[in-house]
Amino acid sequence: MAWTTRATRTVYENPWIHVREDEVTGPHGDGIYGVVRMQNPAVFVVALDDDERVCFVELERYTTGRSIEIPAGGSDGEDPLVAAQRELLEEAGVTASEWHDLGTMNALNGIADAPEHVFLARGLSMTDATHSQHEEGIDAVRWLPFADALASIAAGGITDGETIAALAFAGIRLGRFR
């Protein structure tokens, strides 16, 4: 049985998210469903240097605490590639000469409408982004070999779901999971 929306109302909205409550009929009958919709798609960048190290940023998240993540952010209505380039520069102080679109994914698809674009960046150059990193709330930029990043996921050091999924996209593209 498909889902049917009988009524909907906006509960909250700001420049980044829209929260609605839907009266629905689904496989188990009638109910209420809360949905968070991102106002713009997000972008995630797996930046891989010439030594096969992945760029990570470390920051304190209000919701979950300390987090190690790949550079990412909202597209703010920009083309996803332009947004990915901006986020990599702002968060890590890195530019790239090669960009590969790895695909799209959906965050928290049981409660959210949150499309995300994943990119692989190669041919990296470092810049000075200390000011931007501070504005972004980033405490440190770290570089881990790809295999060490996967080991950190297995050990519970990297727990951000989108980072894990983006690394899976990159691992598939790079032939690391064969």
Automatic annotation (TrEMBL):
Domain of life: Bacteria
InterPro entries xrefs: NUDIX_hydrolase-like_dom_sf, NUDIX_hydrolase_dom
Its EC number(s): 3.6.-.-
Keywords for the protein's UniProt record, in alphabetical order: Hydrolase
Gene3D superfamilies: Nucleoside Triphosphate Pyrophosphohydrolase
Coiled-coil boundaries: none
Family annotation (CDD domains): NUDIX_ADPRase_Ndx2
Nudix hydrolase domain location: 38-166
GO MF terms held by the record: hydrolase activity
SUPFAM superfamilies on file: Nudix
Name this polypeptide is given: NUDIX hydrolase
